[in-house]
Amino acid sequence: MNTMPTTPKRYFWIVFIMLSLLACDIFSPQPANSPMATSMPTFTPAPQTPTILPTETPATTATPLPLFTLDGLRMAYIIDGNLYVQDSGGQPVQLTNSGLDRSPILSDDGQKIVFYRGDFDNVYSIDADGGQEQTLLNGPLSNIAAGTKVGDFAFVPGTHQLLFNTYLCEPQKELPACAMSIFLADTDTSKVTKTLITGLKGAYWGSPPFQISPDGKMVGIAISGHIDIFDLQGQVVRHSIMTYIPSEPSELFPIQYWLPDSSGLVVLLPNEEHLEAPMLSYRYTAWRYVFEDNMATQIPLDPQPEELGGCGMHVSPDRNWIIYNKDVSGQFFVGDLRDGHTQLYVQYACPIYSPYQDNHSWSPDNKHFVYEKSGRSFLGAIDEPPVSSDGDFLGWVDASHYIFHAATEGPAHILVRAVTNGAITTYESGISLPAQNFVEFTFVILGHKANQ
């Protein structure tokens, strides 16, 4: 499932908080502590023996790098406010020239791209071949109140339908409460087909108020202290599966993770009752809800997860593991969501945050993850020590390979890392982007439902 970009104000607080932490020398480097699929793109690398890397020491790669051929990779990204699309083995194609575009997402089949234009007050869709560029804020939404912004959006899995929310916030407040509504639109026709709910109130900069099930039939929506399950016709199918005390005056929404078979959810419920000024961290409790049991059970993680500025809490695709920080100490934990067992993995680290990826740092193997420490990236695992994996992480293409970018002169080259038994091997992909200043990179593997 495609995921939703985080709304703009949140980026301000992320930068503010992280600068504050650096000024206080909270994240000064310290020695690390060692911890006690579907078939995807095909490749035929040249024979090479992977190098076993020591704990948190720079990785070495052969020169020249062997080739890893990525089949079916379709990428979308922004350069200078314009949208580009590019297929593996192909040249980049500039689709827009507004200079105002941002935060693209791709449909599962790679045929539709949705993106913001301007100051988050409009959302557009366009075909991957450049045709049918159109705004979604027409029809019933053309008369929305002045000042209304588009919040988060996500494709319904396997379709061109788009779920998104709008928000209108109280002016002249640091953390205002915002009136929200959630809509369903058809990106093929550019028509809003359904208003799921109106009258929500919450913090526009936090987690989105909704999450779509993997089967594309249901959506969990947080509403003033409880979570309801809706169908895509706007009907409530499960009422108040979980309750929480909404923070005042601005409500911080729960973070929802559907189970892979859509049979329930893992939910991180906010544990803050007062939210009026920026905070260094936000506390949560972890819960699991299964439809068959119709019961929410708390997962006894100790310490409890906290969201620290840009350091999020990332749950594995199978919903059995979580990586997170403990307050401003920078302690980085791995937690088992089946029994609540936790272990301190490393000091002064942070899960890599990307608003354009559903599972963020986690590999589809539910074992490996990527995190940052002291400005460098590392590959971690639930049962192995970390190894250095420098470069800008872009996403996992399958359970044992991920793509990244290493800054060089001229065009931006996309590289591939293979993960095998605790060792990583680096490959050239043969893909170059037209400029180093590309941002907001996202991709799909054509012919596969899962969107990384």
Describe the protein's architecture and organization:
- With 452 residues, this protein is mainly beta.
- The protein has one helix and 35 strands.
- It has one helix at 8-23; strands spanning 73-79, 82-87, 93-94, 101-106, 112-117, 123-127, 134-135, 149-155, 161-169, 178-186, 191-202, 210-212, 218-223, 226-231, 236-243, 248-249, 255-258, 264-270, 274-275, 281-290, 295-299, 306-308, 314-315, 321-326, 331-336, 342-346, 350-351, 368-373, 376-381, 384-388, 392-398, 401-405, 412-420, 423-433, 439-445.
- A hairpin with a 4-residue loop joins strand 14 and strand 15.
- The protein is globular and about 55 Å long.
- The chain starts with 7 loop residues before the first helix and ends in a 7-residue tail after the last strand.
